[in-house]
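If your schedule permits, I should be very grateful for your opinion on a structural question. I have a record of one protein: its chain in single-letter code and its fold written as discrete structure tokens. Kindly check, if you would, that the fold set down in the tokens agrees with what the sequence suggests. I remain grateful for any guidance, and I place the record below:

***
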Amino acid sequence: MPRFTLSTFVALAIASSKVYAQDSSSTSSSLIPLASKHFDYNNLPYQADPDNGVRGTQFGYNRCNSTTENQSSLCQTAIINSIDDFCLWGPPTGPTTIADTEQEEVAWCTKPGHGTRLIPAGALKGVQFMTTPDYVQVVGFIDQTFIDLEASDYGGELDPHGADFRGNPLGGLVYSTAWSNGSGNYEQVIEWHNFMGGSVFCFKICDPAGPNAANYCQHIYDRIGCAYNAPNNAQNGTFETCQGANQDFPGIYTDSAGNIQTYTQPPESLGAISSIPYTPKVPASSNCVTYTSSLLYASLPTSSVVPSSTGKISSSIHTSSTKTGSTGPSNTGTSSNANGSSGSPTTIALSSLTSLVGVALAVFILS
């Protein structure tokens, strides 16, 4: 696939009819911020945010179990554990867009047992699960029509903050066993962000005990998407787990003179973002192991949705490798499973006939 420059993205961008950027001007001081609420996983409230604020009340619920586990579930407690056990935020009904449903998204998961909806079989086209010293992230390619998103929606950001600090979705909670030292105990993740749309996704959760959780899981760069918030070398058609180095904090970069700079996202009122002064560095990854998707997600239900694309699923491979970061949409890496891939969320490259416009919008992913 050809490499597209930022100017190409800008020239092709189409303005969204409804977007929500992070703006503290409408903050309500009467409500407790979602990121300040802490709940034991085994004693969750029915709703983490029962208040009636400017945006109304919480749409779903957080106390999820076998009685709520179905394809109509309104569970708003997401889990991020492993390549075969993670959730994404998606609309409760559709087809629709993230912009129209960001405050009411529900959890769509890859494994039963969490009281949620399940991502239908065939929706996931490639997944990379990365473990680093300070965060865990899952990045991938998806036929988003399977989870009630319009095929043409180029998305937005979900996080536990938002303009009124109540989170998007309202009351949405995230838990993980990533830092349980093998005990299997679920720990609440306070800082996280999930970008959805443009047939790609990235969901990063930051170590609650880490000193830089809020920096690695920044929520103020909601207009520049996965490429800048979760740089990666994931491949369409490949399902893998890797160990990786920490990325630079989103928005922090070193200029050509060697000086550390901070990028400030312009307010939406100034119009489309026409340029960004840096290219994010993709952290090196190692010890990558690839899997067969049908074995990873054997418990997923079939769907009546007709797939909008036919991404090639990787064959059964089990290999270890070391990779160095690449920002190209056709990363070849050094491992055998990376060669000849059709794209990477590093630059949010798509492979459909509408990919030119899709890439433009996905790079400037809006919420």
